Amino acid sequence: MTTYGTMPFHLETERLILRPWAESDAAEFCALLAERGKGTPTVEHIRTSIAELLTATATTGIALLPIQRRDEGDFIGYCGLIIGRATVEEPEIAYELFQRVHGRGYATEAAGAVLDAAVATGRKRLWSTVGTWNTPSLRVLEKLGFERDHVSMEDNGEVVWLTRSLP
Asked: Sign of dihedral through CA atoms 126, 129, 133, 137?
């Protein structure tokens, strides 16, 4: 089995800072998840989820990181590497941002930084899975060099599986 380096857990871009989770992120994380239209999780539930994310990070060496805007200092979403539907050897890149900041290039900027972090770990390939309806997210991945691999049918609809060789 190949050993991979640990992903950097603090990433900075021109406009964004990606950093480890803090308990103080719970309320904003709740608000972000509520935008999915499937109810609002409790802050206590999200605090537990944050603790689970931090535990998974310690185990896997990869992380899903909160995104904050550099100038404004506000939490706008998350981006990072997860096992998801993939493996720790070939993880998924995942991101979600508040609707109020869509269309400004933040997802592409954050995902580009995470892509560089994945390269630094020595990984050779990343995956991403996106609902076929999510054209903006598919565009972000296309800009980052991801290519469609296949489509699967899941309970919530069709999912496009994309892959990107590294570096």
From this structure: negative
